[in-house]
Amino acid sequence: MARNNNVRISDIGENMVVVKLMQNGWDAFNVNQIFNNYKSIDIVCVNPDDGRMQLVQVKTGTGKNAFPTGFISDNKGNIKGFEIRGPWVFVVYSGEGVNMTFKFYILSKSEMEELIRTSNNWYMNEYVRDNEISNQTPVGIKLKYLMGEGEGDTMHTTHNKKHAAYINPLGHNAENRWDKIWE
Fold it and tell me: What is the rounded CA–CA span in Å between residue 91 and residue 93?
């Protein structure tokens, strides 16, 4: 049976992260090569100097849409089963096949927890919308959040009301912040 292209691209992203971790002098292996889609972990990374281990989650996409986190929010902003086990690496790709290029955005465990909580709360409770939001809403992270940007006050086109601004708690661009693996 042929693998679908999204699975293939996810595999490429995960393997690119393993390469980057190893280029930084750390040992790493892709857990998904042993267990199919292991929950909340894609890569195990070990610092050979001190034996510390990190469980790394990888999300791969084009950055045009929000990266799905795998979490679901109710309409009050409560996230079901919210647990972050370690740092996350977001792989943004462009191009196809051998012409693919990659950018990497790395968040520590605590940064990821804070970014998901604050951006989801803003989206669920402070964003002005025309209709009721579902009680089963997927939680996503926008590329601009990984770049340290937030959401300014914007006019809502239908009601002419303003949303509250979303102030990004990161305060920095997470691109190539491989040091965040050990934070």
Answer: 6
Are the C-beta atoms of residues 61 and 67 closer than 8 Å to each other? yes
Burial of 107 (0-12, 13-18, 19+ CB in 10 A): buried
| pLDDT (tens digit per residue) in 84-141 | 999 999 999 999 989 999 999 999 999 999 999 999 999 999 887 777 888 899 999 9
- How much of the chain is in helix, strand and coil states, percent to nearest 5? 30, 25, 45
Residue 59's DSSP bridge partners are 90
Indicate the residue type of 40.
Answer: S
Look at residue 19 in the predicted model and tell me its pLDDT: 98
Q: Looking up tokens 């199919």, which residue turns up?
A: 36
pLDDT over 90 for what percent of the chain? 75
Query: Nearest Cα to 57, choosing from 65, 74, 45?
Result: 45
Question: Cα(50)–Cα(47) distance, rounded to whole angstroms?
Answer: 6
Q: How far apart are CA 59 and CA 1, in angstroms?
A: 24
- Contacting residues for 65 by C-beta, under 8 A, at least 6 apart: 140
Which among 93, 88, 83, 101 has a CA at the least distance from the CA of 146? 88
Residues 6+ apart with CB under 8 A from 102: 13, 16, 91, 92, 93
